[in-house]
């Protein structure tokens, strides 16, 4: 059964929680997570700026949820798979995918981003919960092949209201697929609060009906996330079947830049979460332990700025689209209809060229 209180190792004040019996991650893992947190925050800020400059069409920010993003990527081995949602750009980048390749999807570029097989990261899914079924399929295939692969599938609280979520959990449980379902509960499915979605004691409790172990964790505590997610990945890898982790966090910014969050939540509710910021929390803890100083902060900031500079360079590059690409990657063998449509477009292009 999930605990009544989410697992927490570092409190909002940056101090070690004395009542927690769970082991802390290593100092090296925490420093690594902090560096990634700084980069993730800078990624979110830079992406929002690029939206305002017209270089991105839309951006779903994970500001405030960066600890979930970083931990999800950090607990996986190279051969494991990550299945992200549209809001998990920071997790995809933390996994090693170049930010420029990730963001072209949100720019509207034709190729929609990165090669999933290069870093074992599935395409970011916009439809809620559909990627969970794909994740279970990959995990089931790995089990049949007797491979040590674990799949970590990310979703939000809104996805738990979708039928795909329940189908994925049921299949994974029956076939003991090595998949970790990671629910980032940020309390809103766009404008719908959690209380209007579920009256269960927690979202982690939803695993009980399927025979899946559920656990709750403070989603703004990077240390707790590394421990809880790391343990879940280990259990799945050792044959214990699927795991369900619910991280309690908060979406500090609007659903996307096209959303006005003030229409459905009060500024006071957002302000109440400001002192729980995952970045400040881990920074305070590391400085208190002597694991972070001004020089270390400068190194982390410099790496984050390098990331932001690369994003700007990639997204400021103008691309001249070729209309023929509309037909190139639809089917391996073009259908008669595609061939006909491609010929029409080619004819129009040739006529335009003749008129110039």
From TrEMBL:
GO terms for molecular function: branched-chain 2-oxo acid dehydrogenase activity; magnesium ion binding. It catalyses: N(6)-[(R)-lipoyl]-L-lysyl-[protein] + 3-methyl-2-oxobutanoate + H(+) = N(6)-[(R)-S(8)-2-methylpropanoyldihydrolipoyl]-L-lysyl-[protein] + CO2. Residues 38-302 form the Dehydrogenase E1 component domain. The keyword Oxidoreductase applies. Pfam families: E1_dh (PF00676). Its cofactor is thiamine diphosphate. SUPFAM superfamilies: Thiamin diphosphate-binding fold (THDP-binding) (SSF52518). Its EC number is 1.2.4.4. Keywords: Oxidoreductase, Pyruvate, Thiamine pyrophosphate. GO terms for biological process: branched-chain amino acid catabolic process. Belongs to the BCKDHA family. The branched-chain alpha-keto dehydrogenase complex catalyzes the overall conversion of alpha-keto acids to acyl-CoA and CO(2). It contains multiple copies of three enzymatic components: branched-chain alpha-keto acid decarboxylase (E1), lipoamide acyltransferase (E2) and lipoamide dehydrogenase (E3). This is 2-oxoisovalerate dehydrogenase subunit alpha.
